[in-house]
Predict the structure.
Amino acid sequence: MAKREELLEALNKKFTAMGQNLDVHLEGLLHSTPITYWDYIKTDSLLGLQNQRTTEPDEMVFIMYHQVNELLFKMILWEIEQIAYKDEITTKFFAERLGRISRYFDVLSSSFSVMGDGMEVEQYMKFRTTLTPASGFQSAQYRMIEFASTELINLIDIRFRATIDRDTPFEHAFDHLYWQAAGKDYTTGKKSALLSLFEKRYMGDFIRFMQTYNTLNLWTKFKSLPEEDKANIELQNAMRHYDHTVNVRWVMAHYKAAGKYLNSGKEKAEATGGSEWQKYMHPKYQKRIFFPDLWTEKELENWGVDNLETCKIL
């Protein structure tokens, strides 16, 4: 009974602080129904989100695989947010959250065989024509992960980085992000339907997100730590592992899976969004690197070429 009285007293303090009457909440328990797994996880809603555009069975693999990716992206953004808004952040907390984020990307990197080996090429080449101009390029959450991971300059197309600085308007910087090259002719300024539709839907959200994470991104948070913390090998290894996993391992796994299908015919096929996907995706072209100061000159030079078997600083 003593334990029950302690719980009731604790509950009373909690609800009193909220301006609520504990008795009302206790009475509500008499009328509530027990929680079930399917209600808590929303299983029925989740399993009702797969809608094919064709009759090809393997299209279902394609849909579900990308939905799983988006759920993992949401988990990653959730963990980054914990670091971004943590007051008086410690090295231990930073490294642990980075470890979680890296594990999610490890899952993503190793999962491409699900799609790469899990669909018949013939089926894919049929249903993919119904997806134009949609593309995995248009994952807004993935773009937000990039914005939340590093300073904006590290996401600018390498050809234009010298023209961008911290005083550059966000809208101008946005127009020179590395992934603009997948759907923009820089000579004429014309953008593909892939890019135009993406910007129409998300550009406002992206600009606000870029502004928010301008000083809260992982790289800026790391650089704000005391010198002793920045020199912590465990944290540096966590940063390097994350950087390499996202910008080399995961990208190359995606690149190889795409190549298996798009290069399967007599003639090389375009990506569904019409992008020049080889140069857009391969890390050696754009040098996408979140934490450049944590890599040696040789590692930076060989980025995306040398697969860097280990990312640890010994």
The CA atoms of residues 179 and 291 lie 18 Å apart.
